[in-house]
Request: fold
Amino acid sequence: MAAPSYVQWFVKSSEEYKTKDGKNVEVWEFKHNDDETILKEWAWYFRQNYISDNELNDLTIRTDYEGHKKEFLIEKVFPDKKMRYKNRKLSDSIVRIGDFTEILIADFFQFCTENKYWIPRTRYDSKDNRNLSPKGTDIIGFKILDDSMKNKKDELLTVEVKANLGKVKNNRKLLQAIKDAQKDPLRYEESLFVMSKRFLREHKNEEAEKVKRFLNKTDNPFTFIRSASAIFNEKNFSKDVIEKIDTSCDKLNLKLIVFHGDDLITLCQNLYERAANEA
Reply:
C-alpha cells in the first residue's frame, strides 16, 4: 500500500536532545493542518486498521445496521469517545487515545523511516472488546532483505508507545515506555505466534511464513531493533520530558523517539468521527 499523504506532516527536529544520562533522543513534530483532501484520505486509511470496506458492507447488510455504517462503526467497532474511570467523570477514552497513537507511530515506522518496515495491521481488527487495549507488543515490524528469509541482517522491530495527550503534563511518559519495553523479549514471540496464526486462518501463507521467519532465531539469526516512543500534546512537551529522565533501567539499548503536535486529542477525536462519517 502506498504511503498516505498525511505522513508528510512528520517533521524531524534539527535540535539535539539527550536524556539526563546522556542518551540521544530523536524528536519529531507532527505538524498537521486542515487540508481536506489529506484528512479524507487519512480517515479512510485509518479505518482500514479496524475494518475493510468489504467487511463493513458484509457485516451490515441484512442487519439493523444496513444503511447505517456510521452507527455500526461508532457502536460496534471503534472505541468509545468518552469513558468513565474509577467513578470519575467522563473523560477522553484512554483506549481510543492508545489505538490512535499506536497506529500513528506504526505509520511513521512503516513510511517515514529509512528502513520502511512491513507492519501487519492485525492488532485492532479482531478485538473481543473494542474498549480494551490489545495485549502484547504495541508495534511489530519486519524488514526481510531477500527471499531466503535467512539473512542475519533481516530486522525485527518492536516498539513500546506511551501517550500524554491530556491536560495534565506527565514528564515520565518516555521513561514509562522504556520500562515497559524491557518486557518485550519475553512477550514478542507470543505476539508473533498470534499474528502468524491469524494469517494462516486467512490463507495468507506467504505472510505467515514471513512472520515465522522470526520465530527461529537459533537456526536463522536476525537483527533486533527495539524502540521506546512517547507522544505529547504540544502543551505537554518541553525539554524536561527528555532531559530530566534517567534511562539506566534500559538494558536493551532502545532507540528513543519523542513525538509532539498541537492539540492531538482533538485531532484524534475528529479523525475517528470522520472515519465513521465518511464510511
Q: What stands out?
A: The radius of gyration is 19 Å. The longest helix spans residues 94-111. The chain has nine helices and nine strands. The longest strand covers residues 223-233.
